[in-house]
Amino acid sequence: MRLSLPDRFIRRCQSDARGVATLAPRQIYILPTRYGLAFALLLVLMWIGSINYANNLGFLLTFLLTGLGLVTMLHTWRNLVGIRCQALRSEPVFKGQTAVFRIQLSNRRRNERPQLNLRLEEGEGETRDLSTGGDATLRLSTRAERRGRLRLPRCTLSTTYPLGLLYAWSYLHLDGEVLVYPAPGDPLPASNQPSYRQSQQGDKGVGSDDFVGLRGYRAGDSPRQIDWKSHAREQGLHTKQFGGDRSDRRWLEWDALAPLPVEARLSALCRGVLDAAEQQQEFGLRLPGLVLTPARGEKQRLAALQALALYGEGER
């Protein structure tokens, strides 16, 4: 059962300074389900029948079931009161992928809280039981249609415990987000090749000491470093890499992609970042108003992808 109210009538449960939202008694809505309406109709018919036939046992059963319905309303409402909700850190994704928000529910009471359902404003949710004093982490998914910061949409926490006669829910506004990188585009032009510089770490460079592996041939490579054996086996031209005095340095530049629109440039640069990181190249990034100095490794990769994801954020 899904119900919605106009925004001006909604009592929201919002995160505090610590990012935790605690459901207060006056932030919970409750209405009968279709089974609850059928149950109420049955009680009315039983009451009319008892009056018509002056049946005391009928009155007793009607009032007993009415009391059961009122107690059920209390238990349904109590199943939500006091639950703590917090949005946890979520992993970044690329545009077009599915973003997953991680939300933790905490129960600080001595009684269990069964049949809790948490869902986003659009889409199916996840149902979980909370044990006494326990926590549960739920994952809600949505498609990442735009790059940048994807804010956690409004969530609905609901329950029909214990008999399914009543539906109680509350709206959650949590401080959660997923960073969405640009979708990787086509590889950069072949002319955008790495340059070389003096390396302080020979085992990660391209030099003339210890052999560390092969890479594809590039125009200008010395014939003495070409792996002629693999070429003789018709495996293509490859250049031997040695730890030593030189290392790859590659600049990924915004201006080099001038004919392309903004999002296409960001996608192409994203592909360049992924390729450079995969090939363990040292690379830098130049964007309007931002220069990321050349480096290598996972930290550099994440910094470059974040810069591309947040480019022009204040202008959108």
Write the layout of secondary structure elements.
Elements: E1 12-14, E2 20-22, E3 29-32, H1 34-53, H2 56-78, E4 84-87, E5 93-94, E6 98-106, E7 113-120, E8 126-130, E9 135-143, E10 148-151, E11 155-159, E12 166-173, E13 177-181, E14 195-198, E15 210-216, H3 228-232, E16 238-243, E17 246-253, H4 262-278, E18 282-287, E19 290-295, H5 298-309
Parallel strand pairs: 1-12, 5-13, 17-18
Antiparallel strand pairs: 2-4, 3-12, 4-6, 6-9, 7-8, 7-11, 10-13, 11-12, 14-17, 15-16, 18-19
Task: Describe this protein's structure.
The structure is a single chain. By secondary structure, the chain is α+β, with helices and mostly antiparallel strands. It contains five helices and 19 strands. It has helices at residues 34-53, 56-78, 228-232, 262-278, 298-309; strands at residues 12-14, 20-22, 29-32, 84-87, 93-94, 98-106, 113-120, 126-130, 135-143, 148-151, 155-159, 166-173, 177-181, 195-198, 210-216, 238-243, 246-253, 282-287, 290-295. The strands form five sheets. Strands 1, 3, 7, 8, 11 and 12 form a six-stranded mixed β-sheet that branches. A four-stranded antiparallel β-sheet has the order 2-4-6-9, with no helix packed on it. Helix 1 packs antiparallel against helix 2 (56-78). The longest helix is centred in the first third of the chain and has 23 residues, at 56-78.
Question: How do you describe this structure in short?
Answer:
The chain is an alpha+beta fold and 316 residues long. The protein is built from five helices and 19 strands. The longest helix is centred in the first third of the chain and has 23 residues.
